[in-house]
Structures are given as structure tokens and as C-alpha cells.
């Protein structure tokens, strides 16, 4: 049964203070809860008290000290109802739970012998009976009792206020969190952990202790997370004026975790993959990911915790805003253009696909069956794009004033997206009512642009037409307010021309607003024929079509003043060539490489450029997944063949240039995850990629030498990937064996070893997946292992997952069926590639639907049920 946004009502009762006592035992943890409850002022008197609770064994219940009789309450599968309660009262309950049996990793569970929690969104109801909804905010006081030897460390939110010894080798710590919070921000950790400590002085001069808690063997992997945390704290003070509000900030690394990390108040819990780094175990990309996630969770302290969501339909209120904040942070401390390129290429591949599939939903959905299915690219990344558009619409200063207004006015409250956008409207004086449609309308808007230069009148006419395709449940779409940043690049001068619209001069880089289905913009005093540079910086999350000639694109690649659009022009040019080759492959015609692409790449290599990371991006072809997104019907084999052909053609013609680029960017400097070094490594490794695409002898030697040199994980992993993906088993096997033996003890490195093998384009990849699922380092119970092996295969090895014999689909469905029982959240996520069946040929469609139907025949968790039903609807 779905939950609807339109059914929202405040709760009949609310908790103002919550006292918890945990007596930890793996199979029988006792949780005592004393809730200070009162009738909600907006609700009528006399309503029953309804508490959420799942998989709890109730041991006792009392109101104001009086134990309840059997007939005074009722237990259901999803909660507890007390028929009559006073206006204000204390409710005492005691329940028993079994953390050891908890494989769903929601609520309280054990990970490597360590107790930890994940309560967002609705995990707290698996810990105790409660009003498990974000608009109930209480102060918490938590006592944790554990075994002094097995659990020397006992953590919860806020500040420790008391600790002591207990009989039979037990001990306790009491924590107090003075900031009212919804229970989804509750956290508890207990185990044999070690800490790394540092401190931070806030802008008002308060001293905050910073602690990162890990298993002993990981103590040497915390430096980067700690440094990132301090950078994030400074950035949020300088950029948003937001200061930290407790004396202690803790991060804990756990091995078994469904997502990246969680922003529990004062006690962030991280997937170990999202916090641990060491030059020998983590790649540059992992270092940057850790920095971004540490910042993201820290930023939630304001955008999420101090001001939270009224209900889960508002999830993007905190997630979209916080992703936008972490993206800006990463852009500020790294290469900003590269950060934007990376984010957009990921977005256009994965979010566009979500928007085009059966699970498409608005940034603010209006109903759901299982909220954990809505921690999606749409809520997070499209939500961030919409906040970015707001920032650009109102300008940074008004945006900052709006953000101050929002944090000030709603501090300590649970609010809605209207409250946020309302602050931006108030601070800027702009009418944002049409803009609000971005939150309720699903699907990716398509813009068809047509331009014409009128020599005689020195005018440029730009016509824009917008259309958002129908999505499930939304057949009709209204026009959106789309801000389009653009320039006109003069073909003679190679410069941005001044823009004049309706007599107003807008400078040479301007934003025009498309608000209707179709609009024509007439630029006057355009002194030479231009090529339009549209949607600069990806100023709106739309699909923009314009009939550029290949000459136009090569020109923009070289001359556009906007770095992002220079990169995008390169991608478009490569796409045009790829389209031809895909068609040639399908028609059995001989493939011919477009010399204009080769020349554009040669020009890039000759020009060089000072941002090596940008150059590396420009030399990288669109991924198979992105190419697939651009095709009306996905032909995985043709796409793979076409992309390989382009890569090899470029490599053959520009072999010496790539070799020179590789040599020029080698370095023995001590590893540092700094933007400049990272850029240089990417560039060198892109060059090696091309050389290996043609199995160049010198390239092979270089890859082997880079693997053996063992300088840092970025280089080792890249070399190992190239050797493993080559057609020569004599290159792959010894390297894989050496790496696997060396890192057998480190699960996060073994994840990389799994991923590298299952992305092999060779036809034995699927057999490898099955074989590796029996490897001692693999476990279906660990989400990181599942993602590294099965998720990576299904999402990144397109030719083998989509094998025409259906074996790839069958393998995925087998895993989903097993995980449906163990971990429904991960199971539901894993189905994604099967939900995209409409995009493929009839044979594959039937095979994919067949597997979805096989899943549907099982006894399903709500998570898997919701996804499968939508996929087959
Ligand atoms: N709020 C967390 C974050 O984005 C994610 C928690 C997701 N929880 C879940 N059960 N899916 O930082
Ligand atoms: Zn978040």
C-alpha cells in the first residue's frame, strides 16, 4: 500500500525528549525507551497513540509508571496502538531485538563484530516503538551498556556525560544530544575501535574535538578524511556562514553499509569505502570521492539536521541542497571545470536513463511504497541541478541571503521544499512559481534549438522549443522555466560576440529564459556569422539538440570560451562519428574513421593546455553507457565495436603523440592527492589507454612497468585494468594473481580486483562472475562486495551482461532473488539494469521481462515488489 504526499497530517502526539537504554547482546539486545509525549497542538484530543515498530518483541509497556493491561493496547505487524492516553505523559517500553540476525542493515546490526545503526529513513522502528517520522523532533539521552572487553568503545549522538563499570564485566556510557532531532538521525556504535583525533576551532573561537573511529588495521587510512573534514568545516563557515554546534564530531568506518554514509547528529557513520584511503589502496578517484562524501555528511549538519524534512516526500530538500553544496566545495578545492564535467557526464548517463525508464519520478514524488527506493539520482543529483539553477537565477548574493533566511527562520524545524524556495523568492524578489514545476514534473526536458544568421540585418535568430516526454503517471507536461546560458562565438574572430536582445546589451555570456513551449530570441548587431554555444556549464538538466556540423564542433572545441562547452563539443563530435560507425556495423558495411575527428584530436594533443585534467577529459571518448543513452534502440555490440574502432583508429594515427604524452607525464614524485598531480596522472593514463587499445609493444611494456613499479593505487589499478582487459591472457593472468595474493587481506582492494575482472570485454566475463562469487573474499551479505562484483558486471560490462543467450540477466535475477531475503534495499537497487528492457531489441526484451517475471513469482519484500511492478507495468 502506497503512502501519498496529499495524506500528510501532523502526528497526533509528539515526543519532546527521548531516553534510551541499550543493553547489548548479539542475539538479544534489550532496548528500554522512555518517551516524553504530548498531544500535537494542531490535532484533536482523544486520538489513539500509534507508534511504529517492526521486528520487535515487546517485553513491557507502561504509561506514567502504570503497566498497561492487555486490552489497553494492540500490537500489529507494523506497530503498536495505545487506545487511550493523557494529553501529556511518559511512555515506558522495553523490547528485545537481535542485531546478529539483521542482514538488511537497517536499524541496529552487527558488522564485523561491531554494533552500528542505520536509521534513515525508517530504520529506527526496528530499534524501538516510536513516532518514526522526521517531523517529530526530540532531545535524546542514550545509555549504552556493553561488554568491557568486546565493546570497549560505546558511542552515540551528542556529548558523553557519564560512564562507569557494571557487574559481570559490563560497562556503560551515557550520551546527551541537546539538539532536538528526528529519530532518523539517531546513531549508536559499539565495538573494539581505535580513534584518530584532531581538533578544529570554529569561527567564533569554539574548540571542537574531531575523531575518526576505525578498526585497528585501518588507523593509517584516515589522514585524508580528517583533512577533508577540516576543509569542509572551514568552507561551510566561509561560504554559508555555518558553524558546527557541538564540542565533538565523530566519524565511524563500518564494513557493512548499504549506502555511502549517514549524517547522524555528531556521529556520522560511513561505509569504510567512503572514508578510508591510503596511496597504496585507494585511487585518485577514491580520494576525491571520500573528500566529497565527508563534506556532504558534514554539510548535512545544517542542511538536513538543524533544518530537516517535514516528511520523506521532501527528501530532496536536504539531499538536493546538500549535493549542490558538496559539488561546489569539491569544485572550489579541486579543478572546477573537471568537477563539472565529471558530474554532468555521470548525470547525463545515469539520471537521464532513470528519467526515461519505468521508475521515473519527480524530484518530489507524490507517492511511494518503499521510501528507500527513492534515494535516487533524481532526488539527489537532479535535485542538486535544480538548486544550482536557483543559485544562477537569483545570483549568489541573493541565494546566500535566502539561505541565511532559511536556516534562521526554520532552525529546529521540519519543513518543505516550498519553505526553501520561498526564502529564495523572498530574498531575490523573483517570482519562482513556474520554476516550482521542476519539483513535480518527472522526465528530462528536450530542447530543440534552431539558429539562423541574417547577414543583411546582422541578426541571429535562435528558436528554442521545449518538450518533456510523458513519464509513468504523467502523460501531459507543462513548459518549465529553463535558464539557458549561452554565447555566440564569431567564426571569423574566434571570440564571443557581444549579445544584444531587445535593445539590452547582455555582455558576451548571458542567460536567456525559455518559459514557453517555443520562443524565438533575436540577437541584434551580430557583426559576423556565429556558432552558438548553448547550455554553457550545463545550465539546466535538459537534453539539448542542435544540428551542428562537424566543422562547427571542431571550431567550438578549439574556440569556445566556456571550458565545459569545449569538452561538450568534443563529445558531440565523437558522437556524430560513432553514430555513423554504429550504423556501418549494423549494416555490415566497412567502418571508416572520420578524419575530422582525428584532426580535432591531433589539434588537442598539439595545443596541450594548462589544465591536464581537462585535457584528459577531452581525450576521453563518451562511455558505452552514454552512447547507449543517445540511441533510439540500444545495440550493445554495435556500440562496443564502434567505440573500440574509434579508439583504435585514433591510437594508430596518433600513436607517437600518445607515446610522447605518456612519457612527458610520468613522474616519480611522492604521491599526493592534489589536483595537479591527479590531472597529470589522468592524462598519462589516458595516453596509455590508447596505446593499449592497439596492444602496442612499447605500450604493453609501459603498462607492465607501471604495474610493477607499484607507486600508487591509481597507476597500479589502471595498469592492471589495461592488462586484464587486453586479449592476451599471458598479460592478464600473472598480474591478477600477484595483485590478488598481495591484497587478499584488504576487502576494499579486493573489491577493485573483482571489478577489474568482471569488466573484461572478453566472452569469459560472465563465467568469471560465477567463479568469483565462490571466492573466499566474496560475500552476498556485504553490499560493497555485491556492488563490486555483480553490480559492476551488470552496469559496466554491457556486452557481456546483455549476452544474447540471456545468461547475464539470469545471473542478476538469481542474485536479486537471494538478496531479496537478506537485504531488500540492495536487492531492489540491483534490479535497475533489468528495468531498462524497453531500450533493447525484442529478443533481449523478452529475456529481461522473463527474468523480471521470475523475480515477481517470489515472495517479495516491498522494496523489490515496488521496482518489479513498475518495471513490468
Ligand atoms: N542521508 C544519507 C546521505 O545521503 C543517505 C542515507 C540513505 N539511507 C538509506 N537507507 N537508503 O548522506
Ligand atoms: Zn545526503
Number of strands: 33
Chemical compounds bound to the protein: arginine, zinc ion
Low-confidence stretches: none
Estimate the strand proportion. 15-25%
Largest β-sheet summary: 8 strands, mixed
* C-alpha-based Rg, rounded: 28 Å
Estimate the helix proportion, in percent: 40-55%
Distance between the termini: 16 Å
**Helix/strand structural class:** alpha+beta
| Continuous helix count | 28
| Strands ordered across the widest β-sheet | 6-5-9-3-2-12-15-14
Tell me the overall shape.
Answer: globular
Mean pLDDT: 98
EC number: 3.4.11.2
Domain Peptidase M1 alanyl aminopeptidase C-terminal: 551-873
Family: Belongs to the peptidase M1 family.
Protein name: Aminopeptidase N
List keywords for this structure.
873 residues, alpha+beta, five-stranded mixed sheet, binds arginine, binds zinc ion
Structural features, described:
The chain is globular. 41% of the residues lie in helices and 22% in strands. A hairpin with a 2-residue loop joins strand 10 and strand 11. The model has no long low-confidence stretch (mean pLDDT 98). The longest helix is centred in the middle third of the chain and has 25 residues, at 563-587. The strands form 9 sheets. An 8-stranded mixed beta sheet has the order 6-5-9-3-2-12-15-14, with no helix packed on it. A 5-stranded mixed beta sheet has the order 17-18-19-21-20, covered by helices on one side. Strands 10-11-16-13 form a 4-stranded antiparallel beta sheet, with no helix packed on it. With 873 residues, it is an alpha+beta fold. 50% of the residues are buried. It starts with a strand and ends with a helix. Helix 6 (396-409) crosses helix 7 (417-428), helix 18 (713-725) runs parallel beside helix 20 and helix 24 packs antiparallel against helix 25 (824-830). Residues 118, 120-121, 258-259, 261-263, 296-297, 319, 372, 375, 825 line the site of arginine. Residues 225-438 form the Peptidase M1 membrane alanine aminopeptidase domain. Keywords: Aminopeptidase, Hydrolase, Metal-binding, Metalloprotease, Protease, Zinc. Aminopeptidase N is involved in the degradation of intracellular peptides generated by protein breakdown during normal growth as well as in response to nutrient starvation.
